[in-house]
Amino acid sequence: MMVMLREVEGSLHKLKYIKEEGRKTAVETVKEIGKPQADPAARIDRFLEYFTIGPQGLDPAGIVWKLEHILDVRDTRFKDEVKLMAPSADEIQANNLENTLEAAMALNYIYKIIRHFYLLGKKTYSLYVVMQIQMILPMVMKEAEAYASALKAFAFGQPIGDGAGALVAAKLMQGHETRKIAKDCVVATVPFEGRTAFVIKAEGPGGNVGKPGDAIKEVIEENNGNVATVVMIDAALKLEGEELGEVAEGVGAAIGGPGVDQYKIEESLVKYHIPINAVIIKEDVGDAVSPLRKEIFDSVENVIERVKQVVLERTKEGDKVIIAGIGNTIGIGQ
Amino acid sequence: MTMENSSPQRSRVSPSALMVLFIMLVLSLAALLYGVWIIDSYPDLAYIILLFGFLGTAMAAYTLVQMRRRLSKLKIVISPVTTTIECKKCGFKNVREFQRGDYIFKAVEPCQKCNDKMLITAVYREVKEKEKASFPY
């Protein structure tokens, strides 16, 4: 038990260092970009302790809308806080700052959880309390290190691995007119292999995932359900042994997050019986939130080829298709 | 821009602990020298002093190395991010370090060759992976 405690203690020491660095980066970025009149440190410390209570699930009917409401309130609250912290930041910078603060918040939370179990284990001398945290420690540390790299990427506005899907969409819509659709999303109508493609992505280059569920729903409704197929592109977690940037194809809504967008997409698709295809780019959790790696960037061309193949095989000439690039569009314009 | 967290590491090691270690190292080295000095006249005492000298030096050196290793473990090193700027007309390409405000598909300064507008076409980092041991599966 002492060996386990020592191991957890060592990791806790590193987590504390990472968490403090995260806080420092957040404070420095807010000062640099937002040029606040007062010291933002106290407000940032308060922000780091912010929590969100999920909806009650005893009666699951309508839980998605309750969750969506809570997430919307959280988002608005975060945006307001960032505006107060950094009054000089423009919209793009504010989005990036929000992402930076969220990463710092995640680090703070991880540190507190590990510290809780460490102290509880020490206090109770319970092998099982220490063991459960010691067993998942390598994964927790990996995630914490990923968030630490994410902090820098968000603070500088660099594209991240999670934005691979958004990058594919951005490449497809390049040179075509875009219009806003749903919250923080854009769509471009692009001629694609003899079909009309509605290419959707979150509005960049600020750190943003948008509401692709609403965007896809709106495009389907605009076309009265006359859409031959939907192709979703997203970054997905790779298993150990798989190559970074490997591209795979399947069916279903390729989208992460709390599930609200996936639910909305599936609802719209079922309503009009529209088939859905997915193309994923494999990466590990560290690559997903740290600055975009070359391997992932290079795989974008392969993804475009796969999307072309899917569209050619699954639709007829003249059909309408939706291509949605999912992910955080930080550092990616359109 | 090398993004490396390295600033407050000195604060991680207590100065008093470091001082104790250095004193221990100096005393151990002095013991070693003294042991060698008196080895002919008082061989029994010299061996004991030499033993303590060796043990002290080894312990102090080991602790210092461990301390250094622990500190280097704290570092999270991210490879530098590069920005590629391309001219769509003449194909002129410029690769430079990432600067705040860069983003993919941002229109930047005109091309040096044809004066047409240039676009940032790529922002990524290249990671030099260590040689992987061969794995048959």
Describe this structure as you would to a colleague.
The complex is a heterodimer of chains A (334) and B (137). Chain A has 334 residues and is α/β, with parallel strands linked by helices. Chain A folds into 2 domains: 2-156, no CATH class; 161-325, Peptidyl-tRNA hydrolase (Rossmann fold, 3-Layer(aba) Sandwich). Chain A is 56% helix and 14% strand. Chain A is built from 10 helices and 7 strands. Chain A has helices spanning 2-34, 41-48, 63-85, 91-124, 127-156, 164-173, 212-222, 260-272, 285-289, 294-314; strands at 178-181, 185-192, 195-202, 229-237, 247-251, 276-283, 320-325. Chain A has a 7-stranded mixed β-sheet with strand order 1-2-3-7-4-6-5. In chain A, strand 2 and strand 3 form a beta hairpin. Chain A is globular, with a radius of gyration of 21 Å. Chain B has 137 residues and is an alpha+beta fold. Chain B folds into 2 domains: 3-77; 79-125. Chain B is built from 2 helices and 6 strands; from the N terminus they run βααβββββ. Chain B has helices at residues 15-38, 43-74, and strands at residues 3-4, 77-78, 81-87, 93-97, 107-108, 118-125. Chain B has a 4-stranded antiparallel β-sheet, with no helix packed on it. A two-stranded antiparallel ribbon of chain B has the order 1-2. In chain B, a hairpin with a 5-residue loop joins strand 3 (81-87) and strand 4. In chain B, helix 1 (15-38) packs antiparallel against helix 2. The longest helix of chain B has 32 residues, at 43-74. Chain B is rod-shaped. Mean pLDDT of chain B is 82; it is low at 1-11.
